[in-house]
Amino acid sequence: MGNPDTELPERTVYVKQNICDNTLDNAQLAKRCPLDNANNGRCADASAPARIPAGQLDRLPAELLIQVLLYTDLPSLTCFRRVNSRAMQLVDSVPQYAAIFRHCPDIIRAIISIQADAFDCNTLYATLSTTRCATCDRYKDHLYLIDCSRVCYFCFTRRPEY
Prior knowledge:
By secondary structure, the chain is mainly alpha-helical.
């Protein structure tokens, strides 16, 4: 009997693919892009009276203001949160933003890190709520931040548009 390695048929040998996937999974986002959401210690309620006003925005009803913020991109929401405590309270009171922060804060960090401003908070929430790949209808496990679409590993590594 000869060497078992040389007797294996070629089709059973696994060849590792050289894939440059440009993912942010090992980027230490929590350390490099800290978020102040957990540190504010306030109850997020847009209708609550504020000690510091949000200027002309306080003239709008809370429901309308939340809708405006919902259709704002994440880097802009983050900048608006830094204006004052009332702005922080308003952004934190958007239910979709709060859910994204609660369940996947690293996605917010990644979006801020690469300044992905081509889609709004509502689009991101809707995309994260889907279960299928945007291209092939398989189960998705990647979020493509360029256009805010969910893609499966197969499409992510083999299709040129990703």
